[in-house]
Amino acid sequence: MSDEPFLARWSRRKLDAKSEQPPPEPAAVQAPEPVPEPPPPPELPPVESLGKDSDYSAFLKAGVPQELKQAALQKLWESDPALMAPEVMDLHMGDYATPVAEVVKTAWRLGKGVLDAAELAAEEEEKAKAETPPAPPESDS
């Protein structure tokens, strides 16, 4: 190891590396290729006249200003309530604050593991017995 501090050695090596590199050769200057102009926007109907059954595909083509495209899509979403409603099968729409035990019925029991069919039937029978009121005692009069 040398007695030279780390940062001084690092700085010296960076300067040496820069001085050893040959200067970059000037690249041949090329004229930039002309960018083709986007096609003019197609003749579009006024956004106010659009409805649920209108064709919105013309608003999604290239060359349509972003503001006009957004206005047409907003009109589409407003025109059909089914499009504004949340997706029924969306997994992120559920209320995960509810207890799982009330939502999911399972054969897993704490301390017992997974119950088989006979054990589940016996448990249901016990539950039914507990829910039915006892019969009043018969009196011999």
TrEMBL record:
Xref: InterPro entries: DUF3306
Protein name: DUF3306 domain-containing protein
Gene source species: Paramagnetospirillum caucaseum
Pro residues composition bias: residue spans: 33-45
Region of interest (Disordered), ranges: 1-54, 121-141
